[in-house]
Amino acid sequence: MIKTWLLNEMFPSDRTHLTIEGTQGEWGAGDSIAAEEELPPPPANVTAKSGNGRVTITWDPVPDAMYYNLYFQTTKGVMIKFSDLTRPIASADDFKAVIGVKKDKGTCLEGAQSPFVHDDLANGICYHYVVTVVTQKGESLESQEVMGMPSPYLLAISIGREGVDDGEFSSPTGITLDKDGNIYVADTDNHSIQKLDKSGKFLARWGGDPSSQEGSFYYPRGLAVGLNDVLYIADSGNNRIQKFDLDGNVMQAWGKFGFAWRGADLGRFDVPWGLATDAEGNLYVSDTSNARIQKFTSDGTALLKWGRDGSFDGAFFFPRGVAVDFVGNISIADESNNRIQKFDARGSFLAKWGREGAGPGQFKSPWGIACDALGNVYVVDTGNHRIQKFDGNGTFLCAWGNRGRAEGQLNFPYGIAVDKEGAVYVVDSGNGRILKYVPTDEELNRGKEEASTSQVPSETPPPRGVAVKAGDTEAFLSWMEVPGAQSYNLYFNTVPKL
Asked: Do residues 148 and 50 touch, judged by C-beta distance below 8 A?
């Protein structure tokens, strides 16, 4: 007869099968070796759920289990769809194949129990896991392999792809949301605006053929929703702002080309880019190639401008994204200076942070910027293919993202928006899609804890970024909001004119 022995003890990594010819009597001693079929079955329904600096692994219990072993290995720079972590690692071109975690190769966490929280992990690293069970019969084979990538924000949905049809995009840039959660995207190279519902379902589009006619566009970029349900669009190639209702009907247009260095008046633009509105309905525009910010009323009346070429405080080198926080302060993504600058509503400089680099709080060509309801600032760090989050004072909080085409990865992201629940929408321009990220429970709870802690009056820091702007008979003072402040006291004294 033919007998097959599993030389498990001799070659555990390969599990080599040896076939030997002989009779049962000649080879009877082999019957004492436990066949692989007698080992307990591996744990089933293994899942991995990512969190901020952690992955939680669960599995179904196995009868007669004495204990479980969890084996893991790591890879870098591979993303998966975080809303579908229970499936095995994909083998499509956009993903790395299952790396084949084995008992003799992976790091063993002996005695793990489900659910097992694997914490103190590095965000942005892929952790691959298998589970085995140990019974009196021995240790099972490895379970189905799963993986998770720790991150403070997890991918919820991916919307669109590269193309020209409805729901498809070509080099999209700007994004904004209305009060109902509908999504508006500047489909830049298709010279159109697309409207989607909160789930990403296509609703409408307007524009399409590049034109200077009102209601048409030539490379639209920045978007902002204002009071009374109006949509502002930076029609960059036509150097103007267009105002629409939310159904796509044009209401107004203003602006034309002008060089700031030739003394261009308010209302003239050289590639207007980022847009943002404040609580009063005023509109802020980054006049990018003129290195300045312009402020308008909702009907297009010019109010003020500030900025010029340079790297000193209040100067810009290609300002891009604009965001307004709940206090009314304005944050600007100063792209080629690799920094964020913050101003009050009068254009007075308050603060700045960032420099060129790839570390926390450093940037490589930041483009998009947005604020949430707590005043946190989200920056699209375009050249580093990631999103960075800061508090209102510029203190680094977290970051996520890396370059690639897989689900959740970024390829030259540009625009960004944050909804009232804290979900973050990113224009993944190089991949022709919109990505929606949601905060992990840890990140969401941290935000609530920080908001609660900010109400405690003990050791309250003094206001930062105090600035004075003198007039003929008055002086305007501004400062950065202190979280949790109920009121401010202003003390002053005078000295005789020298």
From this structure: yes
Q: How far is residue 193's CA from residue 287's CA, in Å, rounded to a whole number?
A: 20
CB 331 within 8 A of CB 349: no
Does pLDDT of 196 surpass 50?
Answer: yes
Alpha helices in 128-282 (DSSP H): none
What is the third-level CATH fold of 47-151?
Answer: Immunoglobulin-like (2.60.40)
Is residue 190 a contact partner of residue 181, using CB atoms and an 8 Å limit?
A: no
Quote the tokens at residue 240.
Answer: 């103007």
CA distance 368 to 332: 9
H or E element, residue 444:
helix 441-453
Q: Which of 252, 173, 266, 254 is nearest to 220 (CA)?
A: 173
Among the listed residues 432, 428, 412, the one whose alpha carbon sits nearest the alpha carbon of residue 365: 412
pTM of model > 0.85: no
- Is residue 484 a contact partner of residue 454, using CB atoms and an 8 Å limit? yes
Q: Is 255 left (phi over 0), alpha (psi -120 to 50) or beta?
A: left
pLDDT tens per residue across span 348-379: 999 999 999 999 999 999 999 999 999 999 99
Q: What is the pLDDT, as a whole number, of residue 19?
A: 39
Residue 371 β-bridge partners: 377
Q: Retrieve residue 154's tokens.
A: 């997890």
Encoding tokens for residue 363? 């940037």
The CATH H-level superfamily of 156-453 is TolB, C-terminal domain (2.120.10.30)
Spatial CA neighbour of 307 closest among 324, 277, 284, 327: 284
Cβ neighbors of 263 (< 8 A, separation 6 or more) are none
Q: Give the CA distances from residue 400 to residues 122, 123, 195, 237, 438, in Å, rounded to whole numbers and listed in that order.
A: 11, 8, 27, 32, 12
Q: Are strands 302-306 and 292-296 parallel, antiparallel or unpaired?
A: antiparallel
For residue 469, what are the β-bridge partners?
Answer: 476
Distance between CA 118 and CA 405 in Å, rounded? 27
Percent of the chain with pLDDT over 90: 67
Domain with CATH 2.120.10.30 in the chain: 156-453
